[in-house]
Amino acid sequence: MLYLYFSFKFDRFKKLTKLAGIFDLKLLHMLTIRFARHGRKKQAFFKLVAAEKARAVQKKAVKELGCYNPLADGGKGTFTFDAEAVKKYLSNGAQLSQTAARLLAKNGIKEAEKFIEKRVQKPKKEEPKVEEAASEEAPAEEAAAE
To answer: What is the sign, positive or negative, of the torsion defined by CA atoms of 60, 64, 69, 70?
Structure first.
C-alpha cells in the first residue's frame, strides 16, 4: 500500500480521496514523530511513534519507531529507536515534536536539529529597589531635623 502525505485545502482533499479510491492509496494528514505516554501512574515510559498530526496522541499510530524510558538506569533513562526509519520519515516530510527533536538530535540524528526551536526566556520582573526608598526618606528626615 502506498502512503501519500498532504496538507492541502479541503477541495484538493476531495480530489485526492477520489484518486485514492481508484488507485488503492491511503491518504494521511501531516505526519508527526512524537512521544506517546504509556505505563502506570508515576511510572511512565514513552513510545516514539509516527502518527497523523490530527489524531489523538495515544490513538492508532502509523508506525512505532522506538521507546524512551526516563526511569531506567537509576533515573538516567534509556532511549532506543530505529534510526533508518526515523530518517526515512523525515525525508518524506514528517514533522518532529520539540521533545522528540531534542532527544533525537542528542542521540545522533542531525536532521532533527532543524526542528528545534530556541526557547524564549521571559524577562525577569524587577523588584522595587529598597535603597531608593531609603534614600528618599533620608532627606525628609534631615529637613525635619533642621
So the answer is: negative
Q: What is the pLDDT of residues 10-51, one digit of tens each?
A: 445 555 556 555 555 555 568 888 899 888 998 888 989 988
Q: How far apart are CA 11 and CA 21, in angstroms?
A: 16
Domain at 78, CATH number: 3.30.1320.10
Domain count of the fold of the chain: 1
Q: Please state, in angstroms and rounded to a whole number, the distance separating the CA atoms of residues 38 and 45.
A: 5
What range does the domain containing 101 cover? 30-119
% helix, strand, coil for the chain, step of 5 = 40, 30, 35
